[in-house]
Write the structure tokens for this entry.
Amino acid sequence: MRELRWGCMIALKDLRLELRSGSRLLAMIAFVVLSALLFSVSLNLAHLEVRGLVAGLVWLTTLFAVTAGAGRAFDTEENDGAFRHVLLTPVSRGAIFLGKTAANWVLVWFVTMLAFFALTTFMEIRSPGPLAWHGAVFLPGTIGLAVTGTFFGRVSNHSTLGDTLLPVLTFPLLVPVVFFGATATSRILLERPWLEISGPVRFLWAFAVGSAVAGTVLFRHVADE
């Protein structure tokens, strides 16, 4: 219970700082909206299977936005040396990681929903399917994206390559998330039954839970570097 309380405190602190500055969130919003607009004007929708295409674009846009924004969760505290003081508190490394991940997940969830509504609007998809089903797909998928982005954001923070290293580390690991996420979203857009969607969703949950457990265990090894 104490670990959960510490994690919530860290998440709320990060969200307050983000809402106060808005730098990461605004950058991610601008990226998503501009990407959706560029996709809509550059693709010939008359000769494409739009619904399947939109599903892939939603997840790819979210992936790039996560790399550009959520992976920088430690930048502010590293720049002013505050993260070193956080490590000196009684808060466990696992609680720090889960708190950071929870704050990142809120941003990733918002960006994913924005990408979905922007792309379906610009691509003129008037019946995207049950929103509850989309939410059931986005929930485990965004958890997996947030966990991976947070963990490797810390790793790249200590590299001389900086943000350049983050896509190299995260993209290979997140290929299954993008694939199964796009598959499930595409089937919802195509109005397939839930039985055909539940398989990819189960994989997304397995990845989300597995990555969260692994990240919590391994974070103490990268936090003190």
Residues 3 and 92 are 7 Å apart (CA to CA). The chain has a mean pLDDT of 82. DSSP finds nine helices and no strands in the chain. The radius of gyration is 18 Å.
